[in-house]
Write a structure and sequence with these properties.
Radius of gyration: 17 Å
Oligomer: single chain
Number of helices: 2
Distance between the termini: 47 Å
Number of strands: 12
Structural class: mainly beta
Order of helices and strands: EEEEEEHEEEEEEH
Number of domains: 1
Helix content: under 10%
């Protein structure tokens, strides 16, 4: 193993630029194929672009009896709480997520087992504080979040609100 990431120019940016959701559907191992860390085969799917100002991804790798597990988590925010907001159906479903990071890499979170969600509503205590929802989707996978070379094979269904995603899928 070569580890040559020494004192070079910093060309690794934090953050994510795109967030896509797709409902979790059970697929066999043969339908999701990898070459190294890249997902090379995945069934055709409709994905929904979600505009979120702040999105983060973490993956914790742990060795356990029987192998390695990958605890994956994606968090994102939606601004402004409205009296019509109801995201119970969202957190009651399993999802897959595709993120594009600030370095241009796409990766799929929850590819095999999916993710489950939770959220908090927050108003803050000052006028300049965040007012909205903070969502977290988490899953435990047997493989790392696979990279995707592009979004070919996915039908991007525009930039929708979370309400529109739920209406179109439920």
């Amino acid at each position: 193993m070569s580890y040559d990431r020494g004192h070079k120019c910093k060309n690794s940016n934090g953050g994510n630029t795109e967030l896509y959701l797709l409902p979790w559907v059970k697929y066999s191992e043969a339908q999701i194929r990898y070459t190294g860390n890249y997902i090379t085969t995945f069934p055709y799917s409709v994905i929904y672009s979600l505009d979120s100002p702040i999105t983060s991804f973490t993956e914790n790798v742990e060795e356990k009896k029987g192998g390695v597990s990958f605890a994956q988590s994606v968090s994102f925010q939606l601004n402004k709480i409205l009296d019509t907001d109801n995201y119970i159906d969202f957190v009651n479903r399993d999802w897959r997520i595709i993120l594009r990071d600030s370095n241009g890499f796409y990766r799929m979170i929850g590819a095999h087992i999916g993710t489950i969600g939770k959220y908090t509503k927050e108003t803050g205590s000052n006028k300049g504080d965040f007012n909205g929802f903070k969502f977290t989707l988490e899953g435990l996978e047997e493989k790392t979040a696979g990279f995707l070379s592009d979004l070919n094979g996915f039908d991007v269904n525009g930039n929708l609100s979370l309400e529109e995603i739920l209406e179109s899928y439920l």
